[in-house]
Amino acid sequence: MKKYFFIFILIFFSFKSLYANEISEWLKKEIDIILEAYKNQSLSNENRFLIIEKTINTNFAGTGIAKFVAGEAWKKSDKNTKKIYIDNFKRHLALNIASLMQGYSDQTYELRKSKYDNQNQVSLIEMEIFSDTGSVVLTWRVKESKDRFFVIDLIVADISLVVTKRSEFNSMLKKVDNDLSKFNEVLFDQNLESYQKITE
């Protein structure tokens, strides 16, 4: 009996290791698409952003994150308002990440240890970015859904991007009485301003 239990444990952890490697390979491929866009000096700022936006929209759980950060305002809104908001949020997220990437100058990175959170059914993958002044560690939270992977959060210095966005959006939503329709106007204008700065 002990022999069979040992074999089961061995197979289980071998599977987890293969699964972690599969996620890490997928994540590296998607990160490299963004980094290559920044290395390609022949690209205009606008085309560079569009590549980043497409990659983020494809690989981040944008709709789920958008719902979470909208909080109570989401529940009170109609279907069309929600659709407009999701589009606005996805562009906002892409602009945020593109803005963070503007300081990129050929730094190198390494995907370090990864572990699986059984309770939340989420994979946590550590990424260390190296520069002349030192290094910084990020943690990607990745979930599998519909036979593919999605990034559901990015944690920098123990600070969650999603939780930070929820706090930021809650403050903005209070100013428009949690009216998602009015908030869409605010977010659209904010996105437009950010887009002009990034693509100029």
Which structural class best describes the helix and strand composition?
alpha+beta
How would you state the average pLDDT, rounded? 85
Strand content: 15-25%
Largest sheet: 5 strands, antiparallel
- What name does the CATH topology carry? Nuclear Transport Factor 2, Chain: A
- The total number of structural domains is 1
Overall geometric form: globular
Number of helices: 7
CATH class: Alpha Beta
Which sequence of SSEs, written as H and E, runs from N to C? Answer: HHHHHEEEEEHH
What's the arrangement of strands in the largest beta sheet?
1-2-3-4-5
Describe the structure.
This protein is 62% helix and 22% strand. Helix 2 (45-59) crosses helix 5, helix 3 crosses helix 5 and helix 5 runs parallel beside helix 7. 22% of the residues are buried. The chain has helices at 2-39, 45-59, 62-70, 72-75, 79-101, 161-174, 180-199, and strands at 108-117, 122-131, 134-145, 148-156, 159-160. Strand 2 and strand 3 form a beta hairpin. It is of the alpha+beta class and 200 residues long. It has one domain (2-199): Nuclear Transport Factor 2, Chain: A (Roll). A five-stranded antiparallel beta sheet has the order 1-2-3-4-5. It is built from seven helices and five strands; from the N terminus they run αααααβββββαα. The model is unreliable at 1-18 (pLDDT under 50). It is globular, with a radius of gyration of 19 Å.
Topology, element by element:
Elements lengths: L1 H38 L5 H15 L2 H9 L1 H4 L3 H23 L6 E10 L4 E10 L2 E12 L2 E9 L2 E2 H14 L5 H20 L1
Antiparallel strand pairs: 1-2, 2-3, 3-4, 4-5
